[in-house]
Amino acid sequence: MLSLFRSGTSRTVISRNFASSCARLNSTLAFVETSGKTITPSSLSALTAATQLGKPITAVLLGSDSAEAASQLAKSSKINKILVSKSEKYDHYLPEEVSPLITNLLKDGAGDFTNFITPASAVGKNLLPRVGAQLDVQPVSDIIKVISADTFVRPAYAGNALMTVKSKDKQVLVSARGSAFPPLEIDEGASVPIEEIEYVESGNITEFVSEEIIKSERPDLGSAKVVVSGGRGLKNKEEFDKILNPLAAKLGAAIGASRAAVDSGFCDNSLQVGQTGKVVAPDLYIAVGISGAIQHLAGMKDSKVIVAINKDEESPIFNVADISLVGDAFEVVPELTEKL
Ligand SMILES: Cc1cc2nc3c(=O)[nH]c(=O)nc-3n(C[C@H](O)[C@H](O)[C@H](O)COP(=O)(O)OP(=O)(O)OC[C@H]3O[C@@H](n4cnc5c(N)ncnc54)[C@H](O)[C@@H]3O)c2cc1C
């Protein structure tokens, strides 16, 4: 190799290229989502999963607000490099815009990035299959455990079975379930290089029009430490709010709901917990007037402590509960709230 480095200038250039390709050799590309100027909790969890792959990590952040979030992340000694594109085209993470960029990064100098990881958020769920299709790779979605850089545990059949999956693809693409990994703690021990990257032409014909966000003073359901959830047993929207809001306020909890409660119009569908809703694993989950159908359990059974309040002592929710309270929610919840 040394014989290549004859002139002083070319030695610098060649050796720097060589060093940078070595740094990326056999490494992980992590997609980091931001909300406003901050990194989302599910992305911090995906970054923890990325550290468990045991390879150098390059994080990629996109959109006009990404620079500030990138400079927060740049303090982490767990990250080796950060790529940022501030193009407004990446605001709102339209998958038609984002996937060509990610595919390009993964294709560029094939073999450099052996792994790609994204949070299993709505954005990640939109992105991962597209990138998989564009690279002709089978992604492994919603992993809950990293066994090695190509082998993972993921739930199947609404969480009733856990499968261990080994990817044989050259590049391993995964999404990580937020509740299964603790958020990465940014240790402020480093100053990671940030590189700006260009917008990649996508030929996209879809356009972001508008979004309606339900604003709530309650913590975010996906990352709250305490969740108070209500089901059909709470009868209607007025009772749902009257019973759950004071309890949630006392506990600083997020509010969740069963699908039956959502379908009956008790609350917005963004609060649904379960197989087709959010998957949560708070320190404390209080289920009020919820029967405990498997599709609901799929979204909350990994909570650390489960309290169930139901008037039917045969209710299946009691099979997963750590603390069972058999009683009428309209009597016991106000009493509990008052005692708290
Ligand atoms: C493909 C598919 C996906 C699904 N996805 C989800 C999902 O993501 N999340 C989800 O939750 N469900 C989901 N479901 C629906 C699920 O099967 C159940 O129908 C739903 O969870 C039931 O909600 P519930 O427990 O609120 O209602 P119910 O099953 O009607 O239970 C109400 C409970 O309230 C109790 N109760 C009544 N009055 C009182 C009182 N005064 N005090 C105390 N307790 C009382 C009753 O004893 C009962 O146990 C899905 C179903 C399918 C088929």
From TrEMBL:
Its cofactor is FAD. SUPFAM superfamilies: Adenine nucleotide alpha hydrolases-like (SSF52402), DHS-like NAD/FAD-binding domain (SSF52467). Residues 28-212 form the Electron transfer flavoprotein alpha/beta-subunit N-terminal domain. GO terms for biological process: fatty acid beta-oxidation using acyl-CoA dehydrogenase. The keyword Disulfide bond does not apply. GO terms for cellular component: mitochondrial matrix. Coiled coil: none annotated. InterPro entries: DHS-like_NAD/FAD-binding_dom, ETF_a/b_N, ETF_a/FixB, ETF_alpha_N, ETF_asu_C, ETF_asu_C_CS, Rossmann-like_a/b/a_fold. Keywords: Electron transport, FAD, Flavoprotein, Mitochondrion, Transport. Binds 1 FAD per dimer. It is found in: Mitochondrion matrix. The keyword Mitochondrion applies. CDD domains: ETF_alpha. Heterodimer of an alpha and a beta subunit. The electron transfer flavoprotein serves as a specific electron acceptor for several dehydrogenases, including five acyl-CoA dehydrogenases, glutaryl-CoA and sarcosine dehydrogenase. It transfers the electrons to the main mitochondrial respiratory chain via ETF-ubiquinone oxidoreductase (ETF dehydrogenase). This is Probable electron transfer flavoprotein subunit alpha.
